[in-house]
Automatic annotation (TrEMBL):
Source species, domain of life: Eukaryota
Entries under Pfam families matching the protein: IBR (PF01485), IBR_1 (PF22191)
Annotated GO MF terms: ubiquitin binding; ubiquitin-protein transferase activity; zinc ion binding
Lineage, highest ranks first: Eukaryota, Fungi, Dikarya, Ascomycota, Pezizomycotina
Naturally occurring in which organism (per UniProt): Aureobasidium pullulans (Black yeast)
Record's keyword terms, sorted: Metal-binding, Repeat, Transferase, Ubl conjugation pathway, Zinc, Zinc-finger
GO BP term (any one): proteasome-mediated ubiquitin-dependent protein catabolic process
GO cellular component: ubiquitin ligase complex
Pathway: Protein modification; protein ubiquitination
KW Zinc-finger (keyword) present: yes
Protein name, as recorded: RING-type domain-containing protein
Gene3D superfamilies the UniProt entry points to: 1.20.120.1750, Zinc/RING finger domain, C3HC4 (zinc finger)
Location of the RING-type domain: 1-211, 163-215
Length: 252
C-alpha cells in the first residue's frame, strides 16, 4: 500500500533499489506519488536540496531522472545547469523580462547581447543598453534625473498629505481645511486629518485637540459652526449624502 495515496498496488508500481540506489529503506511511495512529490520539490527548493518523500535524505541526479516526469526533470536540469554556470564570475543573465537565458560573457565591450533573444544590456551600468550614450554620459544623466526625482518627492511630501482613508496623496492649494479626496470621496480636516462627518454632525470638538479648528464641547457657537460645516458638505456636491448622513433623511 502506498503511504501517500493509500492505494494497494502491485510491487512494480513502486521504486526499486536500482532506481533509488542511495537509500537503504523500503520504498513505500508509488511512482505516481513520487513523481508528484518531485514536482513540488523542484518548484519549491534549490536544485541540490531535493529530498526523498520518506526521509530527509537528498536524492541524486540519476534518482530524480529515474522517477520524475520528463517535464519535471527538464526543469531540474535547467536549474542545475544555471546554478553551475552562475558560479562562473563571467556568467550573466539576460535582462529581458521574457527571457530566462544567460551565457558566459568575456567581451571587452560593455554591451551584452543575449544569444537566445538578442536583448542587450550594459555590463558596467547593469541596465538595458543605453544607445548613443557612453557609460559616463548615462551615469551623469541618471544622477541628474535622480536629483530631480528626489527634489520632486521632497516637494510632494512637504506640500501634500495622504488621505486618511485610501492614502492617496492630496495637495491643498487654497481654501478652508475641509478636504474631499477625489480618489475615494472621504472627507477630512486638512489640519488634523479627522473625519469631517462627525465634525459636521456633532461639532468642532471632534477635531483633534491640538487642531487649530478645535473648539471645546459645549461652546455656545458650536451649533452654528456645525451647521456651517454642514453647508460646506453641501457645497461639495453631496446634497443627498449629507442629508442622510447628518440629518437622517433624503429629499424626495
Amino acid at each position: 500500500m502506498c503511504e501517500v495515496c493509500g492505494e494497494d498496488k502491485c510491487i512494480n508500481s513502486f521504486p526499486n533499489a536500482t532506481q533509488v540506489s542511495s537509500h537503504d529503506h523500503e520504498h513505500d511511495v508509488c511512482h505516481e506519488c513520487f513523481a508528484m512529490h518531485l514536482d513540488v520539490e523542484v518548484d519549491s527548493k534549490m536544485w541540490d536540496q531535493i529530498s526523498c518523500p520518506q526521509c530527509p535524505s537528498l536524492l541524486q541526479q540519476h534518482e530524480i531522472q529515474n522517477l520524475a516526469t520528463p517535464e519535471c526533470f527538464a526543469k531540474y536540469a535547467r536549474f542545475a545547469r544555471r546554478a553551475a554556470l552562475s558560479s562562473n564570475p563571467d556568467y550573466r543573465y539576460c535582462f529581458s523580462t521574457s527571457c530566462e537565458s544567460g551565457q558566459v560573457y568575456e567581451g571587452q565591450e560593455p554591451v551584452f547581447s543575449c544569444q537566445e533573444c538578442g536583448h542587450r544590456h550594459c555590463t558596467v551600468c547593469e541596465v538595458d543598453w543605453h544607445k548613443d550614450e557612453t557609460c559616463e554620459q548615462y551615469q551623469a544623466r541618471n544622477q541628474v534625473q535622480k536629483g530631480y526625482e528626489a527634489e520632486s518627492e521632497a516637494t510632494l511630501q512637504a506640500t501634500s498629505k495622504p488621505c486618511p482613508n485610501c492614502q492617496a496623496r492630496i495637495v491643498k492649494s487654497d481654501g478652508c481645511d475641509h478636504m474631499l479626496c477625489s480618489q475615494c470621496q472621504h472627507q477630512f480636516c486638512w489640519a488634523c486629518l479627522a473625519d469631517f462627518i462627525p465634525i459636521a454632525r456633532h461639532g468642532l470638538h471632534n477635531h483633534h485637540p491640538d487642531c487649530p479648528n478645535h473648539r471645546p464641547a459645549g461652546d455656545i457657537n458650536e451649533d452654528m459652526i456645525a451647521h456651517a460645516n454642514a453647508m460646506l458638505l453641501m457645497a461639495n456636491g453631496r446634497f443627498q449624502e449629507m442629508l442622510e448622513e447628518i440629518f437622517g433623511f433624503r429629499l424626495q
